[in-house]
Amino acid sequence: MGELFSSLTPAPKIPLPQEPNNDPLQGGKTYVDDAVQAITGGPDHELDADGLRSMMESAASDFDRRTARAFGLALLDHLSEDPANMRLLEALVILGLAHPDVLSEARISLAVEGRRLAVLLERSGDVERAQALLEFLAGHMPLDRTVDQELAGLMRRNGNTEELVERYLVRADDAVNAGRVSEAIPWLQEVLLLDRTRRDVARMIRDLRYGEVERERRKRRGVRLVLGISSLCFLVTMGVAWNREAARRYANLPSVSGSDLQMMAARLEGLQNLSATRPVWSGSLKVREEQDRIHWQMREIQRLEREEQIAAELAEQLQWAQAEAARVRGLTHAERGDFKAALAAFGEALEKAPEGWEHLSQIRVDHEALFQHLAQEQEAGR
To answer: Taking the mean position of all CA atoms in its chain, how far away is CA 145?
Structure first.
């Protein structure tokens, strides 16, 4: 209902209270009384459906968002001190109906406050006004079952069961006319809970349930027949398309040349994807056999590569050991003064040394130094 009047251009029709010191919450009791007067129009207003609708329409058209928010804050502030004040609560409910965002911003439920006002009105003996309020709220918020339940409880407590029965029958009739039989049955069951003598209602429930079952049974039979024929045609069509698509994808898989592992892996991945998405087709057996063959070929190639890698590592370790032994011999010969033997040993170490050997640079330096030393001795001997 708030949305219905939100498009109206605000044009004050009644005098709005002045905000003392630009802060509505500082105006005390006078400001709140003025707010209640502006919203409800005075203490002698009627709280029936027409009166509520009139006050809501006035509040929606007369108050802009800022004014409505100021009124709401003032009412909530005073209700926190006097929660049982029906005049303030009534003004708050009307304001919430006209401007729902005012209460939602303050995290206040309009349904809860409306039910609380109805309880206060009932306790004060004003049952008619309480019922009128709940009926209006139920029409304004049809999806909120708590308001409907509160209204039903109020009518039961005050002996208005006949009127409540009529309400439930109208609800059930509306649901049946709208084709919502499953919603109509619970309303009729509520009628039986209120009046066990209503055999006509029991028959209505039985007829609705039987009719619902029959309609559902006929519907299911027809649906099964249509689905069966459609499914058969669909399966034949899909089977042909399925097989044709699988054959096309198989033909477009990457080819393998020689023993290239990357090409094998690419084709194997394509075969696996094809098997996962097309597990059954005319060529599925051929696809599985090729997968097994490529798996075996890849394992064989990887085995040979591992063997070659191990052989290379062993050869490198042998070179390292030979180079290390030659280095040790060279150092030993150098300590003994046999520089020719040391030079030969260092030369052998350089020949055997693998790349990355930690003594390689030092052996080169020592070998060059010994070579220069022996050359100088030979020159001096001449």
So the answer is: 27
Q: How does pLDDT run across 63-78, given as a tens digit for each residue? A: 888 888 888 888 888 8
Euclidean distance between CA atoms 323 and 227, whole angstroms = 83
C-alpha distance from residue 339 to each of 333, 353, 367, 376 (Å): 6, 20, 10, 12
User: Which position has the higher pLDDT, 168 or 213?
Assistant: 168
Q: Residue 212's pLDDT is what?
A: 66
Distance of CA 2 to the CA centre of its chain: 31
Q: In this structure, is the dihedral angle defined by the CA atoms of residues 266, 267, 272 and 277, taken in order, positive or negative?
A: positive
pTM over 0.90: no
Whether 34 contacts 17, CB under 8 Å: yes
Q: How far apart are alpha carbons 81 and 92 in whole angstroms?
A: 15
49-82 in b/e burial notation, b at 16+ Cβ within 10 A? eebbeebbbbbbbbbeeebbbbbbbbbbebbeee
Which pLDDT score is estimated for 177? Answer: 84
Which percentage of the chain shows pLDDT scores above 70? 87
Q: Parse the chain into domains and list their residue ranges.
A: 2-158, 160-252, 306-381
Q: Is 66 helix (H, G, I), strand (E, B) or coil?
A: helix
For 103, other C-beta atoms within 10 Å of its C-beta total 20
Model pLDDT for residues 12-29, shown as the tens digit of each residue: 333 344 443 334 434 445
**CA triple 260-263-269, angle to 5 deg:** 135
**Hey, what are 119's tokens?**
């309880």
The answer to whether 325 and 351 have CB atoms below 8 angstroms apart is no
Q: How far apart are CA 149 and CA 194, in angstroms?
A: 14
User: Which of 197-201's residues contact partners 24+ apart within 8 Å by CB, and which partners?
Assistant: 198/165, 201/169
**Rounded to whole angstroms, how far apart are CA atoms 56 and 17?**
18
365: enclosing H helix or E strand: helix 360-381
User: Pick the residue with more confidence: 2 or 56?
Assistant: 56
Distant-in-sequence, close-in-space partners of 73: CB < 8 Å, separation ≥ 6: 24, 25, 106
Across the chain, mean pLDDT equals 77
Which 3 state secondary structure label does DSSP give 63? coil
Section 270-297 average pLDDT: 85
Q: Are 68 and 59 in contact (CB under 8 A)?
A: yes
